From TrEMBL:
<comment type="similarity">
    <text>Belongs to the CapA family.</text>
</comment>
<feature type="domain" description="Capsule synthesis protein CapA">
    <location>
        <begin position="3"/>
        <end position="221"/>
    </location>
</feature>
<dbReference type="InterPro" id="IPR019079">
    <property type="entry name" value="Capsule_synth_CapA"/>
</dbReference>
<dbReference type="Pfam" id="PF09587">
    <property type="entry name" value="PGA_cap"/>
</dbReference>
<protein>
    <submittedName>
        <fullName>CapA family protein</fullName>
    </submittedName>
</protein>
<dbReference type="InterPro" id="IPR052169">
    <property type="entry name" value="CW_Biosynth-Accessory"/>
</dbReference>
<dbReference type="InterPro" id="IPR029052">
    <property type="entry name" value="Metallo-depent_PP-like"/>
</dbReference>
């Protein structure tokens, strides 16, 4: 996947790599952009080739092409061998996390979205897209734990577009979800957020890492609500969390290392740039340096450095 080649070494080196698939897939060249997206299904093979293992598919665009869009998207991800959570073709699938074995841990990924842009799910499949409901999220996490998950990862499509600061829903939900525990063990081990189109903070909340917003990895020229081009829409980060097994069975797998890797989508060249790596290799580009600093400021804006978050490449 040439567009993702610069981050493939980072992604493929992970025991488990999780992505977010914001759009649904079209068919036979029937592709479209804003406001109702349909992307080429070949993206799924590109994600697999880059090293991604699972994707969240719950977003405000999940119902842009109704049940057909969901079916095409999940069929393509299945064919590429990429797991998925957050949208579904059947009721049974709607209640199933994406399961992966990673570094000795059984990991369950669940995904939810705040909205579907006013599109209602089909009458015969109200479960087609998983909506954010804090009590259901906690119940689903507990169910995954009961089914054998050592690590439970929650992907949330939330927040306010073009706003670097997490909004009240994000802050409140993060506190509630990270406080949920069973027998003293937190029910959720990591929260990964998307939607705002700009990088947002990482923060350790109640002892659990939360990424409020990763920003965008692949996006064309991004225009904010004023209609003006906003370069932040091509900025993002990769979060890398190293989990260590517990001293005793049944206790929590803990994050022993937390890192972020700034990335930027070069719309002229059509590829993602691993900014620290490119700069370390001698790229003399002011736009790289400015993008990296912008991302770093956003990611660290809620004190994550004090909890050990570091920038990596």
């Amino acid at each position: 996947a040439p567009m993702l080649a610069a981050v493939a070494p980072v992604v493929s080196a992970a025991d488990l790599a999780i992505c977010h698939m914001e759009t649904v897939y079209g068919a036979d060249g029937d592709y479209s952009g804003y406001p109702a997206f349909k992307s080429p299904p070949q993206v799924a093979a590109g994600l697999a080739a880059t090293g991604y293992d699972t994707c969240s598919t719950a977003s405000n665009h999940s119902l842009d092409d109704g049940a057909d869009g969901i079916r095409r998207t999940l069929d393509a991800l299945d064919a590429a061998g990429v797991g998925h959570a957050g949208s579904a073709r059947t009721a049974a699938e709607a209640n199933a996390p994406a399961w992966r074995k990673a570094g000795g841990a059984q990991v369950a990924q669940l995904a939810y979205t705040f909205d579907t842009n006013g599109h209602e799910p089909p009458e015969d499949s109200p479960w087609a897209v998983s909506a954010i409901d804090e009590q259901k999220i906690i119940a689903d996490a507990r169910s995954a734990r009961g089914a054998g998950a050592d690590v439970v990862v929650i992907s949330l499509h939330w927040g306010t577009e073009w706003q670097t600061e997490p909004d009240e829903q994000q802050l409140g939900l993060a506190k509630t979800l990270t406080a949920a525990a069973t027998g003293g063990r937190p029910d959720i081990d990591l929260i990964i957020g998307t939607h705002a189109h700009v990088p947002q903070a990482y923060e350790k909340v109640n002892g659990t890492w939360v990424i409020y917003g990763m920003g965008d990895q692949i996006a064309g020229p991004m225009f904010d609500y004023t209609g003006g081009f906003d370069g932040r829409g091509n900025q993002g980060s990769i979060g890398r969390f190293t989990f260590a097994p517990p001293a005793r069975p049944g206790e929590r797998w803990t994050v022993s290392r937390a890192e972020f890797i700034p990335q930027w989508y070069d719309i002229d060249e059509g590829r993602v740039v691993n900014l620290p790596d490119a700069l370390e290799r001698g790229a003399d580009r002011d736009d790289y340096r400015e993008a990296q600093e912008s991302i770093r400021e956003a990611v660290l804006s809620r004190g994550a450095a004090n909890d050990g978050l570091t920038m990596a490449r």
